[in-house]
Write a structure and sequence with these properties.
single chain; mainly alpha; 0% strand; DUF4378; DUF4378 domain-containing protein
Length: 100
C-alpha cells in the first residue's frame, strides 16, 4: 500500500542522489583530464594546475550562485504562497459575512 510506495520513493530518491553524484564526479574528472591533455600539448607544466584551479573555482562559485538562486526562489515562492492564502482567507471571510 502507501507505506510500500513511500519506501520505493525513498529508494528512488537515494538512487537518484547516487547517480547525480557519480555524474558530477565524472564531469569533473573529465574536465581535469581534458585540461591535462591541453597542458601536455602546450608542454608547460605549470599551466595544468592553474587551469584545474580555475575550473574548480568556477565550479565552486557557480554552485554557490546556483544555491543562492535556489534559496531566493524558495523564499519568493513561500512569500507568494503566503499572500495567496491570505487573499483566499480574506475573500472567504467576506463571502461568509457578506461584508464587502
Amino acid at each position: 500500500g502507501g507505506a510500500h510506495f513511500g519506501v520505493l520513493e525513498g529508494e528512488l530518491g537515494a538512487l537518484a542522489d547516487k547517480v547525480w553524484g557519480w555524474m558530477k564526479e565524472e564531469r569533473l574528472s573529465g574536465q581535469v583530464k581534458l585540461l591535462s591533455a591541453v597542458d601536455e600539448e602546450s608542454g608547460e607544466s605549470g599551466d595544468s594546475n592553474s587551469l584545474v584551479e580555475s575550473y574548480v573555482r568556477k565550479e565552486v562559485v557557480g554552485k554557490g550562485w546556483a544555491e543562492q538562486m535556489r534559496l531566493e526562489v524558495d523564499k519568493i515562492g513561500k512569500e507568494i504562497a503566503g499572500k495567496l492564502i491570505q487573499e483566499i482567507v480574506e475573500d472567504s471571510v467576506v463571502e461568509l459575512t457578506g461584508r464587502g
